[in-house]
Amino acid sequence: MKYVVYLLLGGALLTACTAARPLSPASASAARQAIRQVLTTQTAAWNRGDVAGFMQGYWQNDSLVFIGKSGLTYGWQRTLDNYRRSYPTPAAMGQLDFSNLRIQPLSPDAAQVIGRWHLARPAAGDLQGHFLLVFRRINGQWVVVADHSS
């Protein structure tokens, strides 16, 4: 019986180690480039006052989570509604800039991004903070599945 338990545990450990294999440098580089493109596309949409376009970088699912100063928001539509409520006009949205990006692929289909956001808003006053994004590759597309912005 002991032998069977050791065999099962050894098999489980081997499976876990194989599943957690590191990315090749080429795969990690491709993931970073694809994620950077998502962020660039989001920035361009925001800066032209297109909140819905900005949200295309997010997972369109009820399990999307946004964590901000008001707490947790679940769901793509609720997150979009909150953005529209908080930034009702292009002037309120201002001009978005992401900086100090650290894109860290975690597996072939997951990555985290740490960085700083800044909104230049001459009339309403600038806003800024930091964020941690969790990206997943779903159906071949990198999307934000969790956003913790402060």
Automatic annotation (TrEMBL):
Residues 1-19 form the signal peptide. Pfam families: DUF4440 (PF14534). Coiled coil: none annotated. InterPro entries: DUF4440, NTF2-like_dom_sf. Residues 35-144 form the DUF4440 domain. Keywords: Signal. The keyword Phosphoprotein does not apply. It comes from the Bacteria. PROSITE patterns: PROKAR_LIPOPROTEIN. This is Nuclear transport factor 2 family protein. It comes from Hymenobacter rigui. The lineage of its organism: Bacteria, Pseudomonadati, Bacteroidota, Cytophagia, Cytophagales.
